[in-house]
Amino acid sequence: MAVTPLKDIVDRAFAARYGVPAINVFDDLTMEAVLAGAVEARSPLIVQTSVKTVRSIGSRVLMAQWTAMTAGIEVPVTLHLDHCPDRAVLSECLDAGWNSVLFDASALSVEENQRQTTEVVKEAREHGAHVEGEIESITGVEDGVGSDTPSERQTLDVQVRFLEETGVDVFAPAIGNAHGSYTAAPELDTQRVSDIVARHPVPIALHGGSGLSEAVFQDLIARGCAKVNISTALKELYMKSSLEFLRGAEEKNKWDPPSLFRDVRGHVVEMTTGLCREFGSAGQA
């Protein structure tokens, strides 16, 4: 199987109506653990990095880790750059070998967003890569990108024109979803997904997936959400499981970092396999 273009993964999921976990990793441990979880679940997987992670670790180091960890992997996996408004970072990651990017130009006018996204698609194609686009920002700040102020909703005609003119491979509409942890069940306009797909069949990316119920996931995946983003849930799991382990280490006065890493890895693998089962991608590799 090995490293696979994003479009190949999401197009198959879109056609068969299952969702592929798109998990934001932030170090070598989480990258290796989510890949191991996908192999265990026999599932395709989208591994994502934020701009913040790229800047803190470096694109070359991340790509070296990715190349080493995916050598001979038995399931289809792809490396994706999440919400990126910075064209220079997009180019850096495409040059380094990322398989796809999300150009987040939602802060721009629709016209300027469309113009620049078209340019990004052309650049990505020169690298054999794919592009996710959006014209409405997803509420919430994630890794320093985004806004807590809901963006203006665009009409279906505007969305379809954007899709037709830019040729993006995946589309991320705002449907009332938000980055971060939900304090209450969100009111989602799920019909927007169905309307977009009916007019212009394209795999939809569901952002703000952490904390949604299984019933909501199933409904949105059935409507066309082939890419399901998970970020906050992994961060919380990583930090909380580390804290619990360290409290135990303090009680025992036993300080062994490899044991901490092994414990956290186990939790991340378990979370990944669980998401694959929940979204229906388990066994699809």
UniProtKB/TrEMBL annotation:
Required co-factors: Zn(2+)
Gene3D superfamilies membership: Aldolase class I
A Pfam family annotated for this UniProt entry: F_bP_aldolase
The organism's place on the tree of life at top rank: Bacteria
PANTHER family the record matches: D-TAGATOSE-1,6-BISPHOSPHATE ALDOLASE, D-TAGATOSE-1,6-BISPHOSPHATE ALDOLASE SUBUNIT GATY-RELATED
Listed name of the protein: Class II fructose-bisphosphate aldolase
